Amino acid sequence: MFLRMITASLLRRRSRMLVALLSIGIGATILSGLVTIYYDVPRQMGAQFRNYGANMLLMSSGEEALTQQAAEQALSVIPAEELVGASAYRYVTVQLVKRQLSFVAAGTDFEQVQATSPYFMVDGSWPSGNREILVGKQAAESLGLRLGNVIQLTYKPETAVSAGAEDQVAGATLIGSAEGFGGGLVGVTVTLDDEARIASLTVDASSQTEGYGLDAQEEAFTRQFIGQSLPVAYGDGIDALSGATLTSQAVIDAINSAGRSDSGVASGGNSLNMTVVGILDTGGEEENYIFMSMADMVALTGEADRLDVVEMSVSATSEELQAYVDAIAEMDIGVGARLVKRVTKSETAVLAKLQALVCLVTVVVLLLTMICVSTTMMAVVTERRREIGLRKALGASDGSIRAEFLGEGMFLGSLGGLLGSALGFGFAQLISVQVFESSITFQPLLLPVTVIVSMTISALSCLLPIRSAVAIDPALVLKGE
Fold first, then answer.
1. Taking a C-beta distance cutoff of 8 angstroms, is the pair 422, 468 a contact?
2. What's the average model confidence in pLDDT over 350-374?
């Protein structure tokens, strides 16, 4: 009977009650959606921050080098479901003897690198076999390298290269380089005869423009240097290439600064011919490096099971990450772990601010819902003044009047809560797909919570209208005042 009385009262005032129902439904939708996002944000944000690179590093904590076995022991501390990737690196300096240049080469596992550093952009393809390398964008531009080019890399623990006039003696073979057009390097190899004059000249201008500076490699240009004494200069039979003045000057500068390599490949250095299969673009210092597989690094250096650092991407909170760092330190295996604070701190700060914003928006929306429902119910009380006065004159108690209005409000709250729970999940799903590009899972517990909160908000909204209804004086109302 009580339920029939409530529903009949609501149906008689459909327009006003529909406004109240929509207000509660919208509030419940925002509540359900934002709470779902609130609890799913840590996972979503963690996935997004993994795109910014590793958040934990493993390094040697003593004088001994970091080994693969020690690194695997340290990695065992981290649960497999939380470890996104772990890429080990070995860094060495390699020589391009032909151009008298040095670059940093990194040996690594490219499959793991793609997991820990998804921001690496590769033009071409990732190395998948032996003798394939990934060259940083800056290094490739300096060397004039393109996809498919083959270069010889030489590794020596101790390499000394001397250059200068003291090397430019009879019978010497000299190697030099200088910056040409667009910052590309131009390399030369010069052989001197018994009178210290140029007997032969080889120019590597592959970094220069085709049809202009690239012609510096042709015999038509190089033969004018044959028989010249060092240093060389324009004039005396040496002319610049038409339209390639910078490249021509680079050849002259490279010849004049060329020197002998004190330790060539013949004196014990390891060399490998490597094919460029990808150009790496990161916007960071990695663009100056040459990357190869760990197997090629071992073949080049002759040193196995030696690492410099292991970069890890772990899907965990900052507190959990610190616990893993402490656990690795307690293992006493010569491995130290530390957090990449610029990633972990940023993740924690952004997460805290985002969750605070979600809470604030939810509270504001619920307050607005309360105001809307309270206003609607107050209007209903005003319309029903004569009815309420008549009931009280016939003996209705204040408690029955309170129960009726409170029942109407809670009934609206339950309907709005059910409606908002369904719409809220769709709302949260839409935001997740648009912002994080991934879907979310439905939380069954959120349904009863949303309904209870909606009923509570509706009940609180009815308190002021109920107070006004109870305060109605039957005598005044029935007299028409």
1. no
2. 80
For residues 284 and 137, is the Cβ–Cβ distance under 8 A? no
| CA 147/CA 96 separation, integer angstroms | 18
Q: pLDDT > 90: what percent of the chain? A: 17
Global pTM reads 0.52
What whole-number distance in Å separates Cα of residue 389 and Cα of residue 457? 27
**Cα 470 to Cα 455: distance, rounded to the nearest angstrom:** 21
Closest CA to 372 of 255, 300, 461: 461
For position 173, what pLDDT does the model report?
A: 84
Radius of gyration of the chain (CA): 39
Give yes or no for a contact between 258 and 115, defined as CB atoms under 8 angstroms apart: no
Residue 204 near residue 96, CB atoms below 8 Å: no
Q: How far apart are the first and last CA of the chain?
A: 32
pLDDT digits (tens, 9 = 90+) for 116-143: 888 889 999 999 988 999 999 999 988 8
Question: 160 and 304 in contact (C-beta within 8 Å)?
Answer: no
| DSSP structure string for 154-191 | EE-SS--B--SGGG--TT-EEEEEEE-GGG-EEEEEEE
Per-residue pLDDT tens over the stretch 150-204: 888 888 764 434 445 556 677 888 887 777 887 677 888 889 998 889 999 999 8
Strands 289-293 and 101-108: parallel
- Residues 437-455: tens digit of each pLDDT: 667 777 788 788 888 888 8
Torsional sign, CA 202, 205, 210, 213: negative
- Crossing angle of helices 14-49/398-436, nearest 10°? 40
Please choose, from the candidates 416, 401, 409, the residue with its C-alpha nearest in 3D space to the C-alpha of residue 376: 409
